[in-house]
Input
Amino acid sequence: MPVHSLTSRERVLRLFTGDEIDRPPCFSGMGNVTAEGLKKFGYKFAAVHSDAKMMADSAASSYKLFGFECAVVPFDLCVEAEALGCEINVYSHVEDILYPTIKTKLINTEDEMDIQIPSDLAGRGRVPMMKEVIKLLKNDIGHDVAIGAHVLGPFTLAGQIMELNTLLKLSFKKPDKVGKLLGMLADALIVIAGEYEAAGADYITVREMGATSDVLSPRVFKSLILPYLTKIFSGLKGHNVLHICGKTNDIAVFMLESGARAISVDQKNDIAETRKKIGEKALLFGNYDPYNILVSGSQDQVRETMKGCLDNGVSAVWPGCDIWPTVPPENFHAMMDEVKKYRR
Amino acid sequence: MATEDMKKEILERLKNAVIQYDEDAAKEGADEALREGMDANDAIFNGLVSGMEEVGRLFEAQEYFVPELLMCADALYAGLDILKPHVKQLDLGLRGSVVIGTVEGDVHDIGKNIVKMMFDVAGFQVYDLGKDVPLDKFVEEQMKTHSDLVCLSAMMTTTMVGMKKVIDDLKAKNPDVKIMIGGAPVSQDIAEKWGADGYAPDANNALKDAINMISSLKKLKEEAEEKKA
Ligand code: B12
Output
């Protein structure tokens, strides 16, 4: 295949398979809804989380409006916890953009940690809807663009379903008990991610932001978090990425050891240093600040930052977290243009 | 009465109990301090709190992380529970009260909990509203408790704007109340623009600020003591 006529989808897939590409793609594995996209359809942010067509339309709009080289769903971090039995709040009474949150935790104390993973997990909460969304996206733009989906990492999911302070302390005091929970959650996540893969997702991003070095020590990351991430990545069938935001320089090598095909870090990571540590071949995605650069930076700043990411050796230009909905269209265009014209 | 050496040893044990997040040792140390007739205030500030100051330094140096911090706090609280009833009310003259919470739509509360802990340590009466707190609730709680200080935390640029509304409402109802804001997207600039009285920039500095508060509290106490002597 001539590498000068690649579609966005081919470019992304060839990146994952290690085949030659014309330039690094500009895409993401985290939510990519924009206020501009919502406006196009007249959708309210609070409504798009629980309607398959609305979610698919919104996700596809970042490609259609700006040429972003992917469509990624969902936009919130509550799908897995909801399937496990948590209630969520989408803030339907608010006009502003507020992200959904968990209303009630399943586990409040140490004695409540022996939970059962429902055997019909794939049919619970919004999991069936998410499969529908992925199929809609495949039909709509799947020929040209890679379709991504994300799940949480086991520890971050544990933080969603369990009192976080208790979890943090127990991860130190009773790592065996926490490990058992993480093992169960890893199995649950493999089931959910497997459903997304079966529905046609081209790649899965596992978001383990709760285990960032802003919160947990690299030592605990290695002993308690890494084994269950490894479990997940050995259970996934397709292309995959491990994302952790915040401080990650001291855990980047462990992140790669998890077996993830690619790792993704945010703007707090010194990416040139990480590139040195993990070698030339490893896939490293990052690491622009989706708010302070893409939303509130000038177009020049946006261009400089994207060029900086590429100069520092990222394999794909990719945000440090979700694309922040209020991104100005001209900044989005500037980003795409800068990446497209970059030559190593 | 305990000898000076013995006192020193007990204070050292209290301090280390906090640093090594050893709740049992903190309880034993506190009991022993009381048994030996030590001043409860002395045991709290020169023992437990002094340990927490060291914990703050370890956090800053990234030797300790959030779980360690939470466990150290538990050890501190365990000692505090035993010593507090023996503190003469007079000695707590400096104590203020504070309402704290993470604003509506935002569940990021790790940072808020750390800030809260520091106020606890400094001897403040803390009313913790938790996370995802409806904006009106801050005003309501401040009026109800007549707190001196309201602390608002937000970790997202979208939820951060809710703080401005709370500041306006609070200042309208009660111009004397002090307001401190923080969280990753917040800045000194924003704090000034929105009329907040205080701000701490990041994890380390929030902690430092809280520790400074404790330290100045300690200093004032020491000065008061020197005058007495
Ligand atoms: C852990 C985490 C989560 C956890 C939160 C768990 C919990 N109960 O707190 C979970 C997984 C639930 C989560 C969810 C989301 N998150 Co989040 N999360 C983080 C993360 C990785 C760490 C935050 C943290 O705890 N840091 C450690 C603590 C110790 O630091 P701190 O909070 O800054 O607090 C210190 C100071 O700020 C200060 N401080 C804090 N409060 C106050 C108050 C006062 C008065 C003062 C003086 C000081 C002060 O002192 C603190 C102590 O030292 C950050 C990225 C990062 N590394 O910062 C993203 C981050 C905050 N999340 C982000 C996002 C986008 C989300 C989601 C919207 C994702 C989604 N698609 O749904 C949801 C939001 C849900 C909601 N509606 O709230 C973005 C926000 C972007 C933005 N510009 O707004 C961040 C910055 C990630 C990124 N790189 O972009 N997240």
